[in-house]
Design a protein that fits this description.
The protein has 14 helices and 25 strands. Strand 5 and strand 6 form a beta hairpin. It is an alpha/beta fold. Strands 1-2-25-5-6-7-8-9-10 form a nine-stranded mixed sheet. Strands 11-12-13-14-15-24 form a six-stranded mixed sheet, covered by helices on one side. A six-stranded parallel sheet has the order 18-17-19-16-20-23, sandwiched between helices. 47% of the residues are buried. The chain folds into two domains: 270 residues, Metallo-beta-lactamase, Chain A, CATH 3.60.15; 176 residues, 3-Layer(aba) Sandwich (Rossmann fold). The longest helix has 29 residues. The radius of gyration is 24 Å and the shape is globular.
Length: 511
């Protein structure tokens, strides 16, 4: 497959050559000669982008930049989904890890950082550049991912294949994760840093989670300097706790995510009032509120909002429990990086020295403490790990709560098909939880507005600002399903000199 675009003297060329083993390979990798390229002695390679993840899909963010002198990987995330679809991609790297000069990490969600230990295992020994908060969070997330994989592998060996010869192995180990964490080199926001010869890096706030960055690169490509910007995952404006996403200026290449490019999120302004209503109504009934929440981002935002309600003396006095050891470690990182949070947090810190703690809040560490909560009488709030209710401690709390009409289950995020969370949202009459079929008598409360991703209106604002600064010569739309990517391409069109491109896995483009 060969396609070309041209504008004035600048040329963008896409080359995709599929080998028999289905490994996508560009026609111009260093040292390779084929029918698409003349001998290297007669032609200097152009800068090349190769999309090795989150291309035509949402997970596995991984984008390779190559020039004659450097090879840089943007993100190295885990592909998530059905094992038969994701395992081959997670096991086999197409970026030649040992030949990479550096990795730049936009943020620490597992679909962006989760295969860095695998990259180390495959031979990568270069630096990983990120913001300080991202380095701290990624270190925790990678070790947690490795622990889960090792536990799953042990379970597979012990149970599923008992009596059979079958070797189940994790993608990587906790030791690999620890080694990968040692490769991090942190870069402060808004300051240029020459990270390699001929490569300058500057980070801007993306507003998605703590430490999330928009990556700005200036790369020397022969006599030219080219400006490449990678959005990472953009957040929303006016979200609690987090900085708003920052705008960018004119660039040669923009790689932009598109997760929710086709929809508008509910307003965030009523989330705090909804929290207050649901909790206080349950308390009057003598019931508890169970809130499934991801350990990174959502849990900290909920605690921050509850702390605000307590500071305003607007919350009924019921005990609140955070039941997730991972969330506890991540909340400690948030405490260490409050300077990267928004102006409202800075104002609160003038009279409240900890925005993640208040009277009546307990962080639950041990499994025994977690189990004891289900024997405790009286109203309470339990925020527990397991955002889609499929695993984690929240499943046990749901098992004990769903049949009691005094209780409430508060769903605060998207619930994928075929998950317990989706069945709760659908208010099924009966739920199967941990092998038991239970009636759903508890109230189900859907509280939207806490999405960490930019929506169509945020993208429209962001691209309008880019257009005011001169736009982008070429835009590549990644990290989105087909519908959302196509919608964002329409939004981006006016800010781009050439039609936006939606690359697929393995495609390469000469810049």
């Amino acid at each position: 497959m060969f396609a070309g675009f041209s504008r004035n003297s600048r040329h963008f060329r896409e080359v995709l050559f599929i080998r028999p083993d289905n490994e996508a390979k560009t026609s111009q990798l260093p040292g390779k000669i084929n029918r698409f390229s003349p001998p290297p002695t007669t032609r200097k390679l152009a800068m090349k982008l190769t999309f090795l993840g989150a291309a035509g899909e949402v997970t596995g963010s991984q984008h390779l930049i190559e020039t004659d002198s450097v090879r840089i990987l943007l993100d190295c995330g885990l592909f998530q989904g059905r094992e038969e679809d994701t395992l081959p991609k997670n096991q086999h790297f197409r970026c030649r890890p040992s030949k990479l000069d550096a990795v730049i990490l936009s943020h620490a969600h597992i679909d962006h950082c989760g295969n860095l230990p695998g990259l180390y295992k495959a031979g990568f020994r270069g630096p990983i550049f990120s913001s300080p908060a991202t380095a701290d969070i990624a270190s925790i997330m990678m070790r947690d991912s490795a622990k889960i994989q090792e536990e799953d592998a042990r379970y597979e060996r012990k149970k599923r294949f008992k009596g059979e010869h079958h070797e189940s192995k994790p993608l990587y180990t906790e030791e690999d994760a620890r080694h990968a964490a040692k490769l991090f080199e942190t870069v402060p926001f808004h300051e240029w840093d020459e990270i390699l010869d001929g490569v300058r890096l500057r980070l801007h706030h993306a507003g998605h989670i703590l430490g999330a960055a928009i990556v700005e690169l200036e790369i020397q490509d022969g006599p030219e300097w080219k400006r490449v910007i990678f959005s990472g995952d953009l957040g929303r404006r006016n979200q609690p706790l987090l900085m708003d996403p920052e705008t960018i200026g004119r660039c040669d290449v923009l790689i932009c995510e598109s997760t929710y490019g086709d929809r508008i999120h509910p307003d965030t302004s009523n989330v705090k009032a909804e929290l207050q209503r649901v909790i206080c109504e349950a308390a009057r009934r003598g019931g508890r509120v169970i809130i499934p929440a991801f350990s990174l981002g959502r849990t900290q935002m909920l605690v921050y909002l509850l702390n605000e309600l307590r500071n305003e003396d607007a919350m009924c006095r019921v005990p609140v429990f955070i039941d997730s050891p991972l969330a506890i470690r991540l909340t400690d990182v948030h405490r260490d990086h409050t300077r990267d949070m928004d102006s409202d947090v800075q104002a609160t810190l003038k009279h409240d020295d900890d925005v993640f703690d208040f009277e009546g809040l307990t962080y639950v560490q041990s499994q025994d403490e977690s189990m004891a909560l289900n024997r405790q009488e009286g109203p309470m709030v339990i925020i527990a790990a397991g955002g889609m209710c499929e695993n984690g401690r929240v499943v046990h709390h749901l098992k004990h709560a769903v049949s009691d009409e005094r209780n409430a289950i508060m769903i605060i995020g998207f619930q994928a098909e075929h998950t317990l969370g989706r069945r709760i949202v659908e208010k099924r009459q009966e739920l199967k939880i941990l092998g038991k079929t239970l009636p759903l008598n508890a109230r189900v409360e859907i509280v939207n507005g806490l999405s960490a991703h930019a929506d169509a209106s945020d993208f429209q604002w962001w691209f309008n600002e880019l257009q005011k600064q001169g736009g982008a010569e070429q835009v590549f739309i990644v990290h989105g399903e087909s519908k959302s990517a196509s919608a964002l391409a329409k939004i981006a069109e006016d800010a781009s000199d050439l039609p936006p491109v939606i690359p697929q896995f393995g495609q390469s483009f000469d810049i």
